[in-house]
Design goal:
130 residues, single chain, mainly alpha, 0% strand
Length: 130
């Protein structure tokens, strides 16, 4: 029960942390906001944000697996990584866009998540981003 409460707290904090930056980045193609959302992904995964998002997709999955909560938060991380890929693509940064998309796909595959699914807690954000 305590672990479930902890995970729910992490997810709530994550949703709060990515909502404004993703909305702002989508509206203004603001790199600072993109970085804020990336930082939140690192925090969710309990990894140093700067290091986590430089990892190859396979290494990111390994680190998530080792954290012990990867299977619980994978859908959230994959969703945001996928959105970040789109934001980088819109900015013309194809290299980073491809890395974020590869990371999103690797996380989704490794933890049995379908990238077309939207975590319930991110449904409102997804509607606003559409």
């Amino acid at each position: 029960m305590l672990q479930r409460d902890y995970i729910m707290m992490l997810i709530t904090q994550f949703v709060d942390a990515v909502t404004d930056p993703l909305l702002h980045a989508a509206a203004h193609q603001d790199l600072k906001s993109i970085h804020e959302a990336e930082h939140a992904v690192g925090d969710l995964l309990q990894l140093d944000p700067e290091t986590a998002l430089m990892l190859t997709p396979e290494s990111l999955v390994t680190m998530m697996d080792l954290s012990g909560i990867g299977d619980t938060v994978a859908g959230y991380a994959a969703y945001v990584l996928n959105k970040l890929a789109s934001l980088y693509e819109r900015r013309g940064d194809d290299k980073t866009s491809e890395l974020r998309l590869a990371q999103a796909r690797a996380v989704a595959v490794a933890f049995g998540w379908d990238l077309s699914n939207i975590p319930d807690e991110l449904a409102d954000l997804d509607k606003q981003l559409a």
